[in-house]
Amino acid sequence: MTAALADAAPRGVAASRGARPAVAADAAMLAGRHLRLMSRRPASVVSAIVLPLIFVLLFFTVFGRVMDRAGIDYIDYLLPAAVIQAVFFCGISAAILAAEDASGGMLNRLRTMAVSRSAPALGLLGAELARSLLSLGVLLAIGTAFGFRFHGGPWRALGFPVVMLAFAAALVSCHIALGFALRRVEAVTVATNLVYFPFLLLSNAFAPAAAFPSWLRPVVEQQPVSRVADALRALTTSDAALARPLLIAGAWLAGLLVLGALGASRALGRSA
Amino acid sequence: MTAAVEAEGLVKAFGDRRALDGLSLRAEAGTIVGLLGPNGAGKTTTINVLTTVTRPDAGRATVAGHDVVREPALVRAAIGVTGQFAALDGGLTARENLVLFGRLMKLGRAAASRRADELLERFGLTEAADQRTAMLSGGTRRRLDLAASITREPAVLFLDEPTTGLDPRSRLALWDAVRELRASGITILLTTQYLEEADALADRITIIDRGRVVAEGTAEDLKRRIGGTVCHVRLADPAEAPAVARALAPLGVASVVPDGVSLPAAGPQTLVAAVRALDDARAAGRLAATIEDIGLRRPTLDDVFLALTGHPAAADGDDEAAPLGRPAAGVGA
Amino acid sequence: MSAAVRPSLVGDTLVMSGRALRLTMRDPVTFVLSLIFPLLLMLLMTASFAKIVYPTGGYSEFVDVGLPAFILVGIAFAAPVTAAATASDLRGGFDARIRTMPVPTLAALAGRLVADTARSAATVAVVVLVGLPLGFRFTVGPWGAVGFVLLPLLFGLGLGFLALLVAVRAPDAETVNATLNPLMLLGTFLSTGLVPKSDLPGWVQPVAEANPFSVVIEAMRALAHGGPTTRPLLEALAWSVALAVGCGALAVRAYRRRSARPAG
Questions:
Q1: Nearest 5°: phi and psi at C258?
Q2: Candidates B89, B93, B105, partner chain C, best to mutate (most C CBs within 10 A)
Q3: Which residues neighbour B287 within 8 Å (Cβ) at sequence distance 6 or greater?
Q4: C254/C248 Cα distance (integer angstroms)
Q5: Which residues in chain A are closer than 8 Å to C182, comparing Cβ atoms?
Q6: Any idea where the domains of chain C sit in the sequence?
Q7: What's the structural domain count of chain A?
Q8: Contact A66 C199 (CB under 8 A)
Q9: Of the partner residues C27, C41, C195, the one whose CB lies closest to the CB of residue A63
Q10: Picking from A87-96, B13-22, B146-155, C85-94, which range would have the lowest pLDDT averaged per residue?
């Protein structure tokens, strides 16, 4: 892998080439560092793989029957929710790692080196995208064992990881901005939970919008997490219209990505 | 005189490594005893055994007249301990820490509060009194840590490398505080890897290496033990020291010290012989070092240490039994 | 002088509890969040699942039946937080000093549990107060209500000792969270707290029935709504006491053993 290759080179190489920062190489090297950090934290492996799995299995076990009675094939319904949740866990982890780097001096050290300015954020983003793919693989494997199927053929199925990665890129970049800006790990933990719980639970991720009280339904239907869930679900079915949910989700994600990128670059410019 | 600390034949093994290997130790009441040794010598393990934190595998020890294994509660009531890392609650203020530890030493609420104010005053901590200790500087934390060890005046105070990592001024301030404590009658057992710290503070010094005592006495005793004088060669480049030591080898045990080479001297004739040996080596093309200074001087504890253990005090030993207090690990994803 | 300096279980536990309470109050954000978390979960789960679990009943029925479960969720997920704090104490210098002081082991460990119980009481109060206007009813009378409040506190103490045991044995605060969070998740979900037993898959039903969380939830329902009370209450008490005594004894033993080897 690029990250491994870049990492194997001695640290001084970039400087000896005339100290011209190369965004891609720097980001790949920093992504390698983050992946190594993650793999050394058992808790982070648990949150990346085990926790989303536990959630999907528990919800399926506890609510599978009542959902069945309401006419919903719950494993098909739930898997996109589990993927969204896994991406949220990646975002929370990214925010914490970003805060640690910002408060621990790593970020300041990188800025005094011949490392391109956006590399710290891009490296972290790359690492979390890799982790979200790993999580997706595990969720799909286990989900399939419990009856999950792509009903819409290979092309729709291929769109599924693409939408997930787009969602991950948007969400993780917002979380990185948050981590760089807040700097304190405790504050980041609180703030990320304040985002995560309402957005995930006040969405159609785990239960259909129709089950919510009517005054709450418009919020539940319109908010970005529901819109991404709509797009992911459309990609698992054969009959649903595709263009509309994809466009709406795409608009949300593009907006979030811009927000995250602006926020991160502002925070990076400020935290000297 | 009576012994405030007495240890005999202490043995403690971690796996197949013997941290303590028959260590014996004695501190008379009202004195400061310095426990000197490189990393991994067993200093922290000794303190842990004497403060009831670690049970020895063999041997016995009494502190303030109580057996550390059979009467740990009585020992704990009579001691104060300051470790290598400030043993404080980072979330509480300086005053709150002192009150908390005072109450755990069974001072009443009012007495603990009074004592806290007194200690803050005495250790120059009044400005830090209402700040959370996590925010304090290293030197301030260490002084507060020392104050927390004497909320109830102990019979014996253990200081485990109390100045490691401190800047020179904070170190001098801490030394003054330690001397004051001795003046009030407290017996102090101090570990350190800084020879000048033992020299400056301790009435008697015990040098340990690999879990055993290698020498014991006053600083003067110990310096005398390796002879009246040493011949010292100061080098511009310490990297040349091994070559110089080889050139001086015929004259005695020449050892590499931080700024050059040291050689036990019988008298002025050793100096003459050393100069000749270095000239010969240079003439034979075996030596190219720039010698900044060569002369006779009184031995330092560094020389004592070298002569007794065969390696300098500052050398990085292997795995010292980790001190119990360590900075907490980071919070993770 | 030293004759008066004796370890005192009650006195030292109180001093250590005072410290823990002070630390809790100093971090109001965490404190408030620990109260809001079960509340938020109750509101959001009710909004999304009530109509699906009780197609004919709806929101108020879900709150009335599910409220004990949300109280236990709040208490259960506070335990890992305390355990992580304890784990940090044990690895920082604070514990190194406590070990050299005349303080009983149990007092050194249990101080945080007393502060935790105070927080759990606040959780019970908040969830009940919000639950009442949403459909929760006490139909048994004042003694039932008193028991309804006290039982989760006692069970919380049992969970607290379990968390302490993990904190003493785990190498760091992260491992504490990674061990306890899944455990608490399984305990609270695979119970009869959110969905009636008959609506769970066949293989889960015996698990849910034996789950101590279900036992306590059923006892709390009996205390609030009536029905046979003695047997569920005795079972719940037995579980709580067994957890506290068993895990407490193991935690004290593990703590003493830690001192016999170098930290780390």
A1: -50, -35
A2: B89
A3: B240, B243, B244, B247, B278, B281
A4: 10
A5: 46, 50-51, 54
A6: 2-258
A7: 1
A8: yes
A9: C195
A10: C85-94
A116: containing domain: 2-8+21-270
| Pairs of CB atoms within 8 A across B/C | 130
Residue predicted with more confidence, B151 or A15? B151
> In DSSP terms, which residues pair with B14 in a beta bridge?
B17
The residue among B88 and A38 whose pLDDT is bigger is: B88
Residue of chain A minimizing CA distance to B329: A41
> Model confidence at B316, in pLDDT bands (50, 70, 90)?
very low
Residue C252, judged by CB atoms within 10 A of its CB (0-12, 13-18, 19+), counts as: buried
Residue B1: the pLDDT is 60
Please enumerate residues of C whose Cβ is less than 8 A from a Cβ of A.
27, 29-30, 33, 37, 40-41, 44-45, 47-53, 55, 59, 174-175, 177-178, 181-182, 185-186, 189-190, 194-195, 199-201, 204
How much of chain A, in percent, has pLDDT values that exceed 90? Answer: 43
pLDDT score for A111: 66
Find residues 174-193 of chain A whose CB sits inside 8 Å of chain B.
185-186, 189
pLDDT interval class at C12 (50, 70, 90): very high
Between CA B274 and CA B283, with CA B279 as vertex, the angle to 5 degrees is 150
Q: Which two tokens stand for residue C44?
A: 């959001």
Q: Which of C48, C186, C204 is opposite residue A207, by nearest beta carbon? A: C48
Using an 8 Å Cβ cutoff, are B57 and B299 in contact?
A: no
Segment among A185-194, B9-18, B149-158 with least mean pLDDT: A185-194
Contact state of B326 with C11 under an 8 Å Cβ cutoff:
no
Task: Extract the tokens encoding B200.
Answer: 């400056």
Neighbours of chain C (3+ CB pairs under 8 A): A, B
Under 8 Å CB-to-CB from B231, ≥6 apart: which residues? B262, B263, B264, B265, B270, B271, B274, B294, B295, B296
Selection from A231, C8, C76 nearest residue B105 by Cα = C8
Do B328 and C26 make contact, defined as CB atoms within 8 angstroms?
no
The yes-or-no verdict on residue B58 having pLDDT over 50 is yes
Tell me if ipTM is over 0.85.
Answer: no
- Considering the domain boundaries, does residue A184 fall inside one? yes
Interface membership of A100 toward B (CB under 8 Å)? yes
Among candidates C29, C177, C195 on the partner chain, residue whose Cβ is nearest the Cβ of A66: C195
CA distance A93 to A82: 17
CB A145 within 8 A of CB A64: no
Which residues in chain A are contacts of C178 at CB distance < 8 A? 42-43, 46-47
A13, part of any domain = no
Q: What CA–CA distances, in Å, run from A92 to A95, A194, B213, C174?
A: 5, 11, 53, 15
B3-222, CATH topology level: Rossmann fold (3.40.50)
What are the residue boundaries of the structural domains of chain B, listed by start?
3-222, 229-297
Cβ contact A93–B331 (<8 Å): no
Residue of C nearest to B42 (CA): C262
On whether residue A72 sits in a domain, the answer given is: yes
- pLDDT, one tens digit per residue, over A182-221 is 888 778 888 888 888 889 889 999 999 988 999 999 999 9
* Averaged confidence pLDDT in chain A: 83
Chain A to chain C Cβ contacts (< 8 Å): 89
* pLDDT tens digits, A83-129: 999 999 999 988 988 888 887 777 777 766 666 777 778 888 999 99
Could you report the per-residue pLDDT of C81-114, keeping only the tens digit for each? 888 888 888 877 788 888 889 998 888 888 889 9
Q: What pLDDT, on a 0 to 100 scale, did the predictor assign at position A185? A: 79
**Looking at beta carbons, which residues of chain C come within 8 Å of A210?**
51
Rounded to an integer, what distance in angstroms lies between the CA atom of residue C124 and that of residue C68?
Answer: 9
| A202: in domain | yes
User: Is the per-residue pLDDT at C162 higher than 70?
Assistant: yes
Whether A71 has its CB under 8 Å from any CB of chain C: the answer is no
Window 273-332 of B: residues touching A by CB (8 A cutoff) are 330-332
